Amino acid sequence: MSATEMALDETELRRIVETPPLHRWLGIALTEARPGEVVIELPYREELLATPEPENGYVHGGIVATLLDLAGDFALATLVGRGIPTIDLRVDYLRPALPGRALRATGTVVRCGRRLGVADAVVVDAEDGRQLAVARGAWATG
Amino acid sequence: MSATEMALDETELRRIVETPPLHRWLGIALTEARPGEVVIELPYREELLATPEPENGYVHGGIVATLLDLAGDFALATLVGRGIPTIDLRVDYLRPALPGRALRATGTVVRCGRRLGVADAVVVDAEDGRQLAVARGAWATG
Amino acid sequence: MSATEMALDETELRRIVETPPLHRWLGIALTEARPGEVVIELPYREELLATPEPENGYVHGGIVATLLDLAGDFALATLVGRGIPTIDLRVDYLRPALPGRALRATGTVVRCGRRLGVADAVVVDAEDGRQLAVARGAWATG
Amino acid sequence: MSATEMALDETELRRIVETPPLHRWLGIALTEARPGEVVIELPYREELLATPEPENGYVHGGIVATLLDLAGDFALATLVGRGIPTIDLRVDYLRPALPGRALRATGTVVRCGRRLGVADAVVVDAEDGRQLAVARGAWATG
């Protein structure tokens, strides 16, 4: 993490990633941060399942969307210096997120303007690295 | 609810709405269902907040996205007869979801084809009815 | 058209709808305008086809997207007073646009803020009224 | 172009890129093709402008969307063997497309399933390489 180019230091970034109530309930952890890019992880827990039976179930797409949203937001936060409101988010689900697996999300800034930022995010299975979902969104940087 | 036109009865619809682990943790409740349209509600709980301080905080956009996804999915389920995989979802956030307020989501089918369904969803503050977010998505009906 | 509530008069709206070079090449015509809503039409011409053979062809989705973009933009223009830049646009194609048919698009404002506007648009076959595509987008109102 | 891995040969790909009436009117040219990726170009012409005055004008976003749609579609065509219907397309406009400049679009497959394909596309100014717009969409591969 090149602190000199980051718009906020790692302590502050970690605070906005890990302290909000939902993030704590989910157990979101910041694992990497560079200017314009972050990696976060979400541990598995059974309450995330979208299906009554765990054995042939999958993690809810809304949880995957939450992770994608956070990854894009924090990627922009490295340049803007704070968490910022999401304007819109578009998620493509590629494969189901299997029960028992942690998820890893990478957020990458596409463009960071004075009023508007665009970022991409991808969620992979943390164990085998397979892409599960991709997203792109717009955030209010102003 | 006009059971003769629904592709699944209310007991079965209620089961797929209310029994999956995430839905139970969130406390999702089915309040209305007609062929091609459902209304669901989400009670407030502090774990949903995206911000460290509840007083000037708001409910996480990922939770709002989850609710929009479910509303669209269940609207299609009334015609298809079962919950179906989300292909993609696009959410527009219009206003923050304030702490302490229940949320109400309405899902409406735009088109239900043999392979692909498109649905709209809107989330409002259950108390004052203000639109907080709208979404549109594609689901695999085949 | 209730001119007292429109942010621009019909002459000015018609100018931004009908005079830009692409709009003239396409033959875009303004048919209705109210505060927050417009209806525009696009006549058929063979150059719009996406397929080498007209008989089993269809109008290009990019042309349909153009019409949806314009409808959303002009709907916001009725409130903002001028054409505004599109931030993002998401189009769902429901049915092919058949050769020989004019297209009609309606744009409707979802929310018009000081910096950001959201609008919906729908394109129908002007002859039989069938929905061919729907869109939602964000525009910079600031 | 590694013809052994392409699902259609270059002659056939060039036919679906360059012969449909709209593509001919626009002057779309195929410049590169590999399995899962294509590059196409669009020459400038004044009829593409969205603004009455060329000097401070820009090319219409609907034309940029058309180019993005084609790039994603043809990228999938290299794997599927034919042009395929667009299900949905989401475009983010990053910077205006200036008058007088050719546009270059690259389409890249994200995932190509039996029924559904997802592709990304980017449009750059062909002269200076600046990103003008990005898109992601879903196509029916079945």
What does this entry show, briefly?
The structure is a homotetramer of 142-residue chains. By secondary structure, chain A is of the alpha+beta class.
Notes on the protein architecture:
Helices cover about 25% and strands about 35% of the residues of chain A. Chain A has helices at about 10-20, 20-25, 60-80, and strands at about 30-35, 35-40, 85-95, 105-110, 115-125, 130-140. A six-stranded antiparallel sheet of chain A has the order 1-2-4-5-6-3, covered by helices on one side. The two termini of chain A are about 25 Å apart. The interface between A and B is large, with 37 and 37 residues.
Please tag this protein with its features:
homotetramer; 142 residues
- N-C termini distance of chain A: 24 Å
User: What's the mean pLDDT score of chain A?
Assistant: 94
Order of helix and strand elements from N to C terminus of chain A: HHEEHEEEE
In terms of structural class, how would the helical and strand content of chain A be classed? alpha+beta
User: Ranges of chain A with pLDDT <50 over ≥5 residues?
Assistant: none
Radius of gyration of chain A: 15 Å
Which protein chains make the most extensive interface, counting residues with beta carbons within 8 Å of the other chain's beta carbons?
Answer: A-B, 37 and 37 residues
What is the percentage of strand-forming residues of chain A? 35-45%
The tally of beta strands of chain A, per DSSP, is: 6
* Assembly of the depicted chains: homotetramer
**Within the largest sheet of chain A, what's the order of strands?**
1-2-4-5-6-3
User: How many helical stretches of chain A?
Assistant: 3
Biggest sheet statistics of chain A: 6 strands, antiparallel
Helix fraction of chain A, binned, reads 10-25%
Shape of chain A: globular
